[in-house]
């Protein structure tokens, strides 16, 4: 269980964060766990793997990439422990490879929507969104980026570090300055923790505010999302759970305890309706949000079968 508990802890404490990275880490942990199990009994092996999968699934509730990755890996076949183990190892490797390739592909596809001279606003820290900006910049497009802090966990600091390292001129702003700066912006690009069947986007808290401000200023909003960020369960009317994290991330315990009449809320994500999204850039193409169902059917069909459709 070493690989599973270590990875689960890292995901819970956000040492590993970002929907894509969480999914890849979970797939790799399942592979390590499968390789470490000593039993010759298939039912014991399956039970141990299922237990591990459940531990990983409970770490963070919103990023649908996590259950999609876990189910992809656990869809193993075989009549013996060795066959099932080999199947888990190859599925985990395939998931990680595909997911890394997807980020690269999204960069290439999304960069086509970036024009020379564009000022781009982004929020939080998304590997897929940065892939678009970095690819456009490498192509010689003279872009500038405005990045938000993304309180309370300040993932914007990771973003400005990555953009700086890529040589992209970047401005850091506080989250509440989003609308103020939107007048200078040509394009908004964000990542995704989940996309619902109606094309809604679940991403870092504040994304829907950015979308509203972009809509008002007639700035296009581009979402960078691998196909495994789409949520098959939303087809059955299930809602995507919004993670509420500890209030300690917002205000220290001592101060909070001294304020008897104050409650601190800390939702980590919000929902942006499809009307505010111009394009979702996936590794299989740039689509309007209305096409979310098609992506789920064509690329997560195996999952629908398992759900009994
Ligand atoms: C991260 C976040 C990112 C998406 C997409 O939230 O909202 O925009 O996960 O990231 P947190 P990526 O920091 O709470 O995990 O494109 O890297 O998958």
Distance between the termini: 33 Å
Compressed to H and E, one letter per element, the order equals HHHHHEHEHEHEEEHEHEEEHH
Largest sheet: 7 strands, mixed
Structural class: alpha/beta
Count helical runs: 12
Low-confidence segments, given as residue ranges, are none
CATH superfamily of the largest domain: Translation initiation factor eif-2b, domain 2
- Give the strand tally: 10
Radius of gyration: 20 Å
CATH architecture of the largest domain: 3-Layer(aba) Sandwich
| Percent helix range | 40-55%
Shape verdict: globular
Our estimate of the beta-strand percent is: 5-15%
Cofactors and ligands present? Answer: ribulose-1,5-diphosphate
Key terms for this structure?
Rossmann fold, single chain, 47% helix, alpha/beta, 12 helices, 309 residues, binds ribulose-1,5-diphosphate, three-stranded antiparallel β-sheet, 10 strands, Four Helix Bundle (Hemerythrin (Met), subunit A), seven-stranded mixed β-sheet
Strand and helix layout:
Blueprint: H1 2-12, H2 19-36, H3 42-57, H4 65-74, H5 81-111, E1 119-122, H6 127-138, E2 144-148, H7 155-165, E3 170-173, H8 178-182, E4 187-190, E5 194-195, E6 201-204, H9 207-216, E7 220-224, H10 253-258, E8 269-272, E9 279-282, E10 285-287, H11 292-299, H12 301-306
Helix pairs in contact: 1-2, 1-3, 2-3, 2-4, 2-5, 3-4, 4-5, 5-6
This protein binds ribulose-1,5-diphosphate.
Residues 17-21, 63, 124, 126-129, 155, 191-193, 203-204, 268 line the site of ribulose-1,5-diphosphate.
Describe the structure.
This protein is of the alpha/beta class and 309 residues long. It has two domains: 103 residues, translation initiation factor eif-2b, domain 1 (Four Helix Bundle (Hemerythrin (Met), subunit A)), CATH 1.20.120; 192 residues, Rossmann fold (3-Layer(aba) Sandwich). Helices cover 47% and strands 13% of the residues. It has twelve helices and ten strands. The strands form two sheets. The protein has a seven-stranded mixed beta sheet with strand order 3-2-1-4-7-9-10, sandwiched between helices. It has a three-stranded antiparallel beta sheet with strand order 5-6-8, with helices on one face. Helix 2 packs antiparallel against helix 3, helix 3 packs antiparallel against helix 4 and helix 4 packs antiparallel against helix 5. The mean pLDDT is 96. The chain binds ribulose-1,5-diphosphate.
């Amino acid at each position: 269980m070493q690989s599973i508990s270590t990875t689960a802890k890292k995901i819970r404490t956000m040492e590993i964060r970002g929907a894509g990275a969480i999914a890849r880490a979970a797939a790799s942990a399942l592979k390590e766990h499968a390789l470490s199990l000593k039993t010759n009994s298939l039912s014991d092996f399956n039970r141990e793997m299922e237990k591990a999968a459940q531990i990983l699934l409970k770490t963070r509730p919103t990023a649908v990439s996590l259950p999609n990755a876990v189910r992809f890996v656990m869809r193993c076949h075989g009549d013996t422990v060795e066959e099932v183990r080999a199947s888990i190892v190859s599925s985990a490797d395939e998931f990680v490879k595909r997911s890394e390739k997807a980020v690269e592909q999204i960069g290439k596809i999304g960069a086509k929507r970036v024009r020379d001279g564009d000022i781009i606003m982004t929020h939080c820290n998304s590997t897929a969104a940065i892939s678009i900006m970095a690819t456009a910049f490498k192509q010689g497009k003279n872009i500038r980026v405005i990045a938000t802090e993304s309180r309370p966990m300040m993932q914007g600091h990771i973003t400005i570090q990555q953009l700086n390292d890529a040589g992209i001129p970047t401005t850091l702003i506080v989250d509440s300055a989003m609308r103020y700066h939107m007048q200078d912006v040509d394009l908004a690009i964000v990542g995704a923790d989940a996309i619902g069947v109606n094309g809604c986007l679940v991403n870092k808290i504040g994304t829907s505010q950015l979308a509203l401000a972009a809509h008002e200023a007639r700035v296009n909003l581009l979402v960078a999302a691998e196909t495994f960020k789409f949520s098959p369960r939303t087809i059955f009317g299930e809602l995507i759970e919004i993670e509420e994290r500890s209030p300690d991330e917002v205000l220290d315990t001592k101060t909070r305890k001294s304020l008897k009449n104050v409650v601190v809320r800390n939702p980590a994500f919000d929902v942006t309706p499809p009307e505010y999204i111009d394009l979702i850039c996936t590794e299989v193409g740039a689509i309007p949000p209305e096409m979310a169902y098609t992506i789920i059917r064509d690329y997560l069909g195996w999952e629908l079968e398992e759900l009994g459709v």
